[in-house]
Design goal:
This protein is α/β, with parallel strands linked by helices. The protein folds into two domains: about 80 residues, Urease, subunit C, domain 1; about 325 residues, Alpha-Beta Barrel (TIM Barrel). It is built from twelve helices and 21 strands. The strands form five sheets. Strands 1, 2, 3, 4, 5, 18, 19, 20 and 21 form a nine-stranded mixed beta sheet that branches. Strands 11-12-13-14-15 form a five-stranded parallel beta sheet. Strands 6-9-10 form a three-stranded parallel beta sheet. A hairpin with a 2-residue loop joins strand 19 and strand 20. The radius of gyration is 21 Å and the shape is globular. The two termini are about 35 Å apart. The structure holds zinc ion. Zinc ion binds next to loops.
């Protein structure tokens, strides 16, 4: 007799795609089979049973003068659970002058006792100094093996020499380098040229951030990682040309990985022109045309892109000069990713059910180094989602759980949505209702098994 058995669900995961029972004892998966019995049983007839999803690119509340995100660890983790996400990774964006490990400890303190589901971090050194970069081994030692580097944005970008040095540390420590790849100097020059021509509206946003300059920076990031011997993940790949750079690196045998983010798969460049919601989409890299979007779906299907994340960073609307409420740049996706990738990927035939689980659950756990997550395997964490492939949901801010007053996908209808989410054996959302208190979520163990290898 197990603690909990999920009966008669359509179980989908690596190597599994059939009706079975999943049994849980304590916090871990105990067995997968037929005729399993538990002290508590959930009937999953007609539902998909998948591993808890992992979102490896999330921004929880950060307050700084020029930029803030509005989901707290509490609201963001509740939204995650309702969306079938049982682990998310937040970014520690280290202010200049602060030691990396001090910033990490501070952020861990903010999250502790607040989250409904499990969580972890990436550390992003912003300060262009060798001293700061040379702290990277301590960060990996402290349990965060994923280090993020910006190539773009004033005040965030590091020069190529510092990125190389950082990647060398990452390689020596057995971590993963994550890169936001765009060509900063060229973008800045293109923006200047546009301003000289009086072009300042949202319709010029993408033109100043061309696909070729994302691909150029992607090439450079991959070349630096090869030189350093570091494993590398390109965050939010948006351009068909960047996908080609990734293919080339893979053919060369590099441990190079690619992330697609939800909004680039769902929307295209026209979204920025919407007078009400458009300002939210002034993101970088920019939303591109449907040709690029289709290339991303193909790359996800053929394995060139490994994971779908969200870059979840919702921001509440603010009043503009004319007194109108407008959304600042930033998207919210943590609660709707599993549903939207299912609706637009699986239901359209672009992705198989198994590939959907791979890109949302299994590969993120593998690539970001979460060895107890992402698979329905005896001994691993009992993070399980019951997903109703026929449940229809209209996406809107009031229906969702982020601390935000507008939804990135406002008004879209999806067919298929998570109904019950189990985190380490505990039901946290049941039939669409909150079933546990935030605060139970834990820092997820990090690393790769066997050490140093991404499965
Ligand atoms: Zn981000």
């Amino acid at each position: 007799m197990f603690d909990l058995v999920i009966r008669n669900g359509h179980v989908v995961g690596p190597g599994i795609d059939t009706v079975m029972d999943v049994a849980v004892d304590g916090e871990v998966i105990a067995a997968i089979g037929h005729g399993l019995r538990g002290r508590r049983e959930l009937d999953a007839t007609g539902l998909l049973v998948v591993p808890g999803a992992v979102d490896g690119h999330v921004h929880i509340r950060t307050e700084r003068a020029e930029w803030s995100y509005d989901d707290t660890f509490r609201t963001g983790s509740v939204a995650a659970a309702f969306g079938g996400v049982t682990t998310f990774l937040d970014q520690v964006q280290v202010e200049p002058g602060v030691r990396l490990c001090a910033a990490l400890a501070g952020r861990q303190g903010e999250a502790q006792g607040e989250c409904l589901v499990d969580y972890g971090f990436h550390v992003n050194p912003r300060e262009p100094s060798r001293e700061r970069i040379d702290e990277i081994p301590e960060v990996v030692q402290a349990g965060v093996p994923t280090i993020k580097f910006f190539m773009s944005y004033e005040g965030w970008a590091l020069s190529d020499d510092l990125i190389l040095r950082g990647m060398q540390h990452v390689a020596a420590a057995g971590g993963l380098a994550i890169v936001h790849a765009e060509n900063k100097a060229v973008i800045e020059e293109l923006v200047r040229q546009q301003l000289e021509l009086g072009r300042s509206g949202p319709q010029w946003h993408a033109a100043a951030r061309p696909a070729s300059m994302e691909a150029e920076a992607s090439h450079r990031a991959l070349a630096l990682a090869r030189l350093a011997g570091a494993r590398v993940l390109l965050y939010h790949v948006t351009a068909a040309e960047s996908v080609e750079e990734l293919r080339r690196a893979r053919r060369h045998g590099d441990a190079a990985f690619g992330e697609a983010c939800l909004h680039y798969l769902v929307l295209d460049e026209s979204a920025i022109l919407d007078p009400v919601t458009g300002p939210a989409f002034e993101v970088s890299p920019p939303l591109r045309d449907a040709g690029h979007r289709d290339a991303l779906w193909r790359a996800l299907a053929d394995g060139t892109l490994d994971v779908v994340s969200t870059d979840h960073g919702p921001r509440r609307r603010v009043r503009d000069a004319a007194g109108e409420l407008v959304p600042p740049p930033g998207t919210s996706g943590i609660e709707v990713r599993l549903a939207l990738v299912h609706d637009l990927g699986v239901r359209t035939g672009l992705l198989s059910l198994q590939r959907w689980v791979e890109v949302c659950c299994t590969r993120p756990a593998d690539v970001f180094g979460l060895p107890t997550k992402g698979r329905l395997l005896p001994g691993l964490d009992a993070d399980i989602v019951l997903f109703d492939p026929d449940r229809e949901v209209m996406l809107s801010a009031p229906a969702l759980h982020s601390h935000v007053d507008h939804s990135t996908y406002e008004g879209m209808r999806v067919r298929g949505f998570p109904v019950t989410t189990i985190s380490r054996g505990e039901i946290v959302v049941e039939d669409g209702t909150l079933a546990a208190e935030p605060g139970r979520g834990r820092l997820a163990p990090r690393g790769w098994r066997p050490p140093g290898r991404i499965g």
